[in-house]
Amino acid sequence: MEATQKQVEARQACVREDLVIVPMRAESSADAIVQLGALLQAGGFVKDSWIEATIDREKIFATGLPTPEVGVAIPHADVEHVLQQAIAVAVLEEPVEFGEMGNPDSMVSVRIVCALAVARSELLVTLLQRLVGMFQSPGVLNQIAESRSPAEIVDIFNYHIQIE
Fold this sequence. Notes:
This protein is α/β, with parallel strands linked by helices. It has helices spanning 2-12, 29-42, 50-60, 121-136, 140-145, 150-160, and strands at 15-24, 64-65, 72-73, 86-100, 103-117. The chain has a 5-stranded mixed β-sheet with strand order 1-4-5-3-2. A hairpin with a 2-residue loop joins strand 4 (86-100) and strand 5 (103-117). Helix 2 packs antiparallel against helix 3 (50-60).
């Protein structure tokens, strides 16, 4: 029964077209977080505190991943800033710098930003594992970066993020 509940929550956490910006112009990592946070707020997925909490968290626990194909970041806030599961995605016109996950003194040039809104910490761990696995699949990040419509990006995420 628990697996079924996780599947339901994972589907709720998947990407929707109204939470995708392609292409996005951002001046900085904070600007990208603000723009994606605004989408999440408008959709009723996060509290007003989410944007500031995510920017503050990013300074301490950086989320940039130096993947071989395209740099990606997975900014998120703690669960108390979230109302409902969601993932907002942006493909940036020009890369911005995010601190590297596990090595905040190093920077990653990021073109894909996946802002997470997850209301339960145990689901956050599972979702992060699935995302990292997806990003390690050959060609997936290039496929996302070359997408020209929100629908294409939604299809890619829905195909790759399946939580049993």
